[in-house]
Amino acid sequence: MSFIFDLTEAQRFDREDDLAGFREEFYLKEGQYYLDGNSLGLLSKRAEQAVMNLLSSWKDYGIEGWMEGQHPWFTLSESLGEKTAPLIGAKPSEVIVTGSITVNLHQMLSTFYQPEGKRTKIAADELNFPSDIYALQSQIELKGLDPEQELIKAVSADGVTLTIEDIERICTDETAVLLLPSVLYRSGQLLPIKEITKRAHEKGILVGFDLAHSIGAVPHELHDWGVDFSVWCNYKYMNNGPGGTGGLFIHEKHHNRIPGLKGWFGSDKEKQFDMAHTFTKAEGAGAYQIGTPNILSTAPLIGSLSLFEEAGIEKLRKKSLHQTTYISQFVEQELKQFGMKQVTPLADSDRGGHIALQHSYAAGICKAMKAEGIIPDFRSPDIIRLAPAAFYTSYQDLYKAMQLIKKIMTEETYKSYSNERNVIA
Prior knowledge:
- By secondary structure, this protein is α/β, with parallel strands linked by helices.
- It is built from 13 helices and 13 strands.
- A hairpin with a 3-residue loop joins strand 12 and strand 13 (383-386).
- The mean pLDDT is 97.
């Protein structure tokens, strides 16, 4: 496809957009162009109402809210797990809404990482988000081993993307667990999850994925692909609010595994209040919960998931790809001349939900964008991320934002800002 990049075209795209009506469901600021949905999604009116409803259930029922009301708290994590499952191609019993992404990763690693014989290594990649690496290092240390020896990382040839050959090189007969992001957080590259899982399994390696930058933007088929486990946050494309409760997937073939980190809410619900000191695990993913669920941090997801049920993940993906292609082509035609280098793969099958641009003055450019009402995302040392959200980014907003970015680069207004990141980049 090719674009004209004028307002008439953007207006036509908006008229033809099946998802345009969902924009009214979100709180948007006049004159602001929010392109940071891959970092923190915006508040929807349904999410807001869901929080108010859960507050009301606390007010009206007190402790009886655990079993009473429209959304009883005792089974809320399980019911939302069932609603999340279609977004990642999982069975309802394989998904639970719980914890945070790092806590869930610790749970999964403590369950799956059991070094034995020469299979003592965890394989990851050098481009992964730091928190995941910290968790891997911690789990290796808890086994009395040295992360410098036992954590091996796929090396990127270009510093922004990975090939399947890069990954296969760390899948050896010494590798116990492979953990990768579904989408590389800097470049936006979508990894071939199905093929990676297949090749790793052929070598006897357990495979997990961090879905932080794909859930809610990219459909997956985790069950059919045979992925062993996955973790994610729900505050990016899932619009569950800052620090909102995350989730995990564990394939049903592993449901007999005892959680590495046992906790009260991982108990069989029929026996949980027996108060026995013998742990009786729940069936399915619910067994891998640890503590009492954070009800108010989970509440927004009730409203958010209802929007996903109505829109459908396939339609959201189609619009996301169209809008990121729009950005990609604009960069190539209008911004490349200013030293903007696109590092996100061009093929739809290799791209997540954002476009990443590399520029030596990236931090200063992001500040200039914010001064013009554009909300981008900076990632050290030199990456600008632009993420339209299919639920609420209109084509007219996208058109105006890209024209403003061209203006910033043409007039070099970014040079009046320091090229240093803010505390929150």
